[in-house]
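To: structure desk
From: M.T.
Subject: fold request, one chain
Message: Could you run this one when you get a chance? Sequence is below, nothing fancy, just the single chain.
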Amino acid sequence: MCFYIFCSILILMYRVSAQDPTANIPQGRIVGIKVYTESSLTPVEIFYGIPYANAPLGRFRFSAPERHPGWRRTFFAHRMPPRCPQLGLDAESYNEDCLFLNIFAPKRVDGKLLPVMVLLYSETWLQGGATLPCQELASEGVVVITVNYRLHLLSLFTLNSVAARGNLALLDQYLALLWTRENIAAFGGDPNAITLVGHSAGADCVLHHIVSPRSAGLFHRAIIMSPRNMWRAIDTGLNINATQVERISRSIAEALECSGTTDREILNCMRSRSITDIISAALNSTWLNDLQPISDNFLPESEQYLPVSVAEALTSSKMSNIQLDVLMGTTNLEAINSNDFLADHAYEDLMKEGPQRIFEYATTRAIPETLRLLSLQREDTLSMLIQMIRWEFWGVQSRKEVEKEAIAAVEGLARMESSARWGAGGALLAERLARRALRLYVYRFSQPSQVDIRGRHFNFTGAVHGADLIALLGDALMLQIARRPATDSEKRISSVFRKYITNFVRFGYPDANDGWERYKVGNAYVQEIREGFNNDHNYFSASRDVAFWLKYLPNLSNLLNSREHSEQFTTEEDGSRLRGGMVAMSAVSVVLLLLLCAAAGLLHWRRTRRFSLHDDVMNHH
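Reply: Done. Structure tokens follow.
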């Protein structure tokens, strides 16, 4: 008899331990699934596709999201939700009913609430939203939430009115943050320890939420990974205003034969059009480039989400300090992004065209455009600055030597663009954040990439766009995108990087041993994340890249424009960078040769020294 009782107890215990996880929230009862990861014996409970808002269909299309009323029966959260409509997907691959979130929660053994990460991800405002596997990240002891939000015209369409206000992706995310604060405790998460994390366009979203008065208090820390449009957070002159987006919206409406006499008529007509027609109607490249979130100060004050742009907010004396700890970072080959269909060149296509084409493009287009971004495009100094940039990123090799190998040529181009747009741009943004945030930490991820975020194989010596996100999510994401497990070296760097991130989520600082210094005004410390970094003397460090663009080149440009060409710049160390340049510039006057030598010495001044941006950065714009 005792034996049967004992067996019955064992069977009951097995059934209880094997049953699917459940959670009860005001919306109703939810049943999820349970998975195990390689790195942990504790299971991770996953709840897929929980609706946080009403389906944005019919009268809800182009409108601010509304809370989901809930369900009467048990909600089985067992399947990945559909993606929101976007460019690059077949109509069968997305659904307009897409406002769902996914929760990855480690099974608790002590009953304590765990810190929460809300992860926002899309490659652009127009495409790239995907469901990310976060079970390995959750197994580190944090609750992870991923959020689906509207993209493309469904998010950005505006008539500069309450009825069609735009910025709907941000409002979707705002409602998801409200949902998280109200419900996450039922899944073991601490509503008082929420970190908002964004990658690519998701990182741009985080910047918008940081400066929005409506988001205040909904999250307590922020992680900004590889912002998509970093310079729009720096330079107010690059902002897209509401009038521009309204003009695009009305043009698309006309293309869809929705040109009513009133805004209400236009909106009702647009709501009647098929989703495939709406997505395909906005393929004009100019429209796609300018479809962006906008300042919505045309709305009544109580309805505004972004009274001013990010760039304006971070430089305004009226804005109060940001009561957040912030972690920000990029990769060192950000420019290599296969999802950037709006770029005027694609690196994969350039490699097919050959090294000569790459070199010509860099000299005639990429370098001049980069100098224009940094306000260094003076005609009288352009050729000299182009020479300096070529020597910095392609060395003093002859053109024929550079043209020998396509991958080396294209990596030089990518390193040049990345160091200017994301390296120097990141330094300018970090300087502003350092003055506002409680604490700021900055990294640069440069572990050589073997695959990109789409699973395509590379052989670069640096990290392409998305490499930091792959490292954060680890083997689960690698299996999804590359159909293979991570290598030993990928697992090592993933373990290191994930530990930094989870430490920051828990404590507000990434390194418990104080090996990662805060980024401060006057001490622009950037943590390099790369195996063997300290032993690589040829490595282009973050501080060197920033100094090149924000100090050395501006100083050289000013020197070349100065009337007193005899003035010499001296440094503690003299470089030998221009040995090959002497031959190339033999036809230049003796005075310019002397200036060039002086500039070379300046270029090599403390090449690996930590660089301070205190005055140079703030005076740049």
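Reply (cont.): The chain has a mean pLDDT of 83. Let me know if you need anything else for the meeting.
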